[in-house]
Amino acid sequence: MRKLILSALVATGLIGASGAALASSEGAPLMKPEFSFNGFFGKYNQTQLKRGFELFHQVCSNCHGLRLVAYRNLADVGLTADEIKAVAAERDIDDAPNDEGIVSKRAGRPSDKYISPFPNEKAAAAANGGAAPPDLSLMAKARVGGPNYIYSLMLGFSEEIPEHHVVPEGKFYNKYFPGGNISMPPQLMEDLVTYSDGTKATPEQMAVDISAFLNWAAEPELDARKSLGLKVMVFLGVLTALLYALKRQIWKNIH
Ligand code: HEC
Question: Is 193 in the pocket of ligand 1 (CB under 6 A)?
């Protein structure tokens, strides 16, 4: 029995130790901005999604892909059919092989998925000091904290590097990135973009807009899911009331 308790203690001790080791290699605790889509009644704000798209398109898409989002889906964020055509046609993609089997290029179409800036992962890494910029389609789902992580990461670059922390050549200090050294240069400078709705592009504004946009990219059905959830709750509430009334009716002579 004593042996058992002892080994249990050792085991929990070990788990505790490895947990602590994990925590220290993770980034700083995340900032948590107010997103319009937080909470049970939260929804996307379409003007915000459009701003996020403008920033993604003008800045992030020079390095990052968004290969799970088709251009025509951008109607969701408020782009008109003509704007979608124009955005799609900005990049070329391999056409289907012709009758001789020769592949040529054609301009993108609304039905295409967002065309990535680099032809492949190796080219992407080579152009970015060895670290390929990851595709951002599912980034809001892939990282713990989701949109809070993206928000924090975008604002987490800092010139103030803690003592004893070494930033290798070609990397940048960012306290929210695990390990602290990221291959992406700081992005959100004041007035980096000019928003079409006239909103001032401060770093905080851009960070919240891009995080909302990338959350939409990863979970476009959020609004539909929440409104269905609400309808189901209302339905169950009404059903419960009806069944209760029925039960009272049936049992009333027996009491
Ligand atoms: C000059 C190229 C470049 C631009 C422009 C750029 N990034 Fe990056 N980004 C990178 C690289 C390179 C990495 C990989 C970093 C690493 O693994 O160290 C990266 C990584 C990321 C990551 C993933 C971090 C992680 O946890 O793995 C996110 C999120 C991100 N970028 C968001 C953005 C957003 C949003 C924009 C636009 C505002 C943007 N990036 C613009 C080069 C770029």
Answer: no
Residue listed under structure tokens 């709750």: 233
63 lines ligand 1 (CB under 6 A): yes
Ligand 1 lined by 128 (C-beta under 6 Å): yes
Distance of CA 103 to the CA centre of its chain: 34
- pLDDT at residue number 13: 45
How confident is the model over 57-91, as pLDDT tens digits?
Answer: 999 999 999 999 999 999 999 999 999 999 999 99
CA distance 238 to 68: 39
Distance from chain centroid for Cα 215: 4
Q: CA-to-CA distance for 119 and 114, rounded, in angstroms?
A: 13
Cβ partners under 8 Å of residue 250, min gap 6: none
Rg, the chain, Cα only = 25
